[in-house]
């Protein structure tokens, strides 16, 4: 899922790609998108973007003399699981381009597209940030820090620190991979009580005898959890590209993958939190770890994995494998002596079932029993067109 750094990289992409481009006409929405229509039309306008936490604001600004007369319009996007912006030729739109802004003639016609494969992304008209979200961990660090430490009495901090870090009222921009990387660097158990971890920061004071440069150096060398909530996302932004990529083949995703130290890495353990999100960590999970939860340790690609390593929720036990499956798995063939014995009741039941099947076949062959043809009612089924998805 795109997190704070990905939204900031997306805003940078929009501003760089659209600099010098003039857009024109109507804004086009995919017919299968459930998001609102964008009632904007202008013969000439510019597009700019600004990110804050896990939101991105897109502003459409008409140029002087553009027709019809139109006030600037702002849209606020939340990317969901797979949202992103792409610039493409108008005759080669990417799949799942659910909102499209076209350039004005002359010149090759291009389209800035909001692409969302899983359609969990959302946009709203008006340009207001979603109420209730806290200050951005990247752009509003001082306000972010104050907001957390001032509200430690909130029930959110009764929860494990790994869950509190996903609460956008306090950690706007932090998501699943960032929380794992932050806690790993500080060796904080993910299921330690959030208030226990954060209350210690209220007492942290640097010596007044230190110069400003010494204070800055001290913070960079020994950052606390809230400082890492600001510094770690900045590291991802400095990598460039798109950050947490959706396609493993992207070149910039390779740089991001090399940057990771904990999230999804070999040798790390994982557990699911109360919301079903997987947290990666090393060592003791902490006192608030879910009861009955089994920690799974990720092995390297070269290591042989057990079924429990390959899937978090193994399926229920099935019947004994067939001879073909046993051969494929390298298991010894099951002999007659090893096969479970059937009781006389089971044998009689099987014989009666076979006899009944033969009788039905005989009646069907003689015309005594004709199978009825059932017509399925498909009037209630709805299908979505794939051309615009």
From TrEMBL:
Keyword DNA damage listed: yes
Formamidopyrimidine-DNA glycosylase catalytic domain mapped to chain residues: 2-121
Localization annotation: Chromosome; Cytoplasm, Cytoskeleton, Microtubule organizing center, Centrosome; Nucleus
Single GO MF descriptor: DNA N-glycosylase activity
Keywords: Chromosome, Cytoplasm, Cytoskeleton, DNA damage, DNA repair, DNA-binding, Glycosidase, Hydrolase, Lyase, Multifunctional enzyme, Nucleus
Positions of the UniProt region annotated as Disordered: 279-389
One biological process term in Gene Ontology: base-excision repair
UniProt keyword Glycosyltransferase, yes or no: no
SMART domains noted in UniProt: Fapy_DNA_glyco, H2TH
A single GO cellular-component term on record: chromosome
Chief place of localization: nucleus
Alphabetized InterPro entries for the sequence: Endonuclease-VIII_DNA-bd, FPG_cat, FPG_N, H2TH_FPG, Ribosomal_uS13-like_H2TH
Entry EC number(s): 4.2.99.18
Pfam family, one: Neil1-DNA_bind
Similarity comment: Belongs to the FPG family.
Function noted in UniProt: Involved in base excision repair of DNA damaged by oxidation or by mutagenic agents. Acts as a DNA glycosylase that recognizes and removes damaged bases. Has a preference for oxidized pyrimidines, such as thymine glycol, formamidopyrimidine (Fapy) and 5-hydroxyuracil. Has marginal activity towards 8-oxoguanine. Has AP (apurinic/apyrimidinic) lyase activity and introduces nicks in the DNA strand. Cleaves the DNA backbone by beta-delta elimination to generate a single-strand break at the site of the removed base with both 3'- and 5'-phosphates.
Protein name, as recorded: Endonuclease 8-like 1
Organism: Rousettus aegyptiacus
């Amino acid at each position: 899922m795109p997190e704070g750094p990905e939204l900031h990289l997306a805003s940078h992409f929009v501003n760089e790609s659209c600099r010098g481009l003039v857009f024109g006409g109507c804004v086009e929405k995919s017919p299968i998108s459930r998001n609102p229509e964008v009632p904007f039309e202008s013969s000439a306008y510019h597009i700019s973007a600004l990110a804050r936490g896990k939101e991105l604001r897109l502003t459409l600004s008409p140029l002087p003399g553009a027709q019809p007369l139109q006030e600037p319009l702002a849209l606020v996007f939340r990317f969901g699981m797979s949202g992103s912006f792409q610039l493409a030729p108008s005759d080669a739109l990417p799949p799942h381009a659910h909102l499209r802004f076209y350039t004005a003639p002359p010149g090759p016609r291009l389209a800035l597209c909001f692409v969302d494969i899983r359609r969990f992304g959302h946009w709203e008209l008006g340009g207001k940030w979603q109420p209730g979200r806290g200050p951005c961990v990247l752009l509003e660090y001082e306000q972010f820090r104050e907001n957390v430490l001032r509200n430690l009495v909130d029930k959110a901090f009764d929860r494990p620190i790994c869950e509190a870090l996903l609460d956008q009222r306090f950690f706007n921009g932090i998501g699943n991979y960032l929380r794992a990387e932050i806690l790993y660097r500080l060796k904080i158990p993910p299921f330690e009580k959030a208030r226990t971890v954060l209350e210690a920061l209220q007492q942290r004071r640097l010596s007044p005898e230190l110069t400003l440069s010494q204070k800055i150096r001290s913070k960079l060398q020994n950052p606390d959890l809230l400082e890492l909530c600001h510094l770690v996302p900045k590291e991802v932004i400095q990598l460039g590209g798109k950050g947490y990529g959706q396609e493993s083949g992207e070149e910039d995703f390779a740089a991001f993958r090399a940057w990771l130290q904990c999230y999804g890495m070999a040798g790390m353990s994982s557990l699911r939190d109360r919301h079903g999100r997987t947290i990666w960590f090393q060592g003791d999970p902490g006192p608030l770890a879910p009861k009955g939860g089994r920690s799974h340790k990720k092995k390297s690609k070269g290591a042989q994995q057990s079924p429990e390593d390959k899937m978090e929720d193994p399926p229920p036990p099935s019947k004994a494998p067939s001879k073909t499956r046993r051969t494929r798995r390298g298991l010894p063939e099951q002999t007659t002596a090893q096969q479970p014995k059937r009781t006389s009741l089971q044998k009689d039941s099987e014989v009666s079932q076979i006899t009944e099947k033969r009788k039905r076949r005989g009646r069907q062959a003689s015309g005594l029993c004709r199978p009825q043809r059932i017509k399925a009612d498909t009037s209630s089924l709805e299908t979505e067109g794939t051309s615009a998805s």
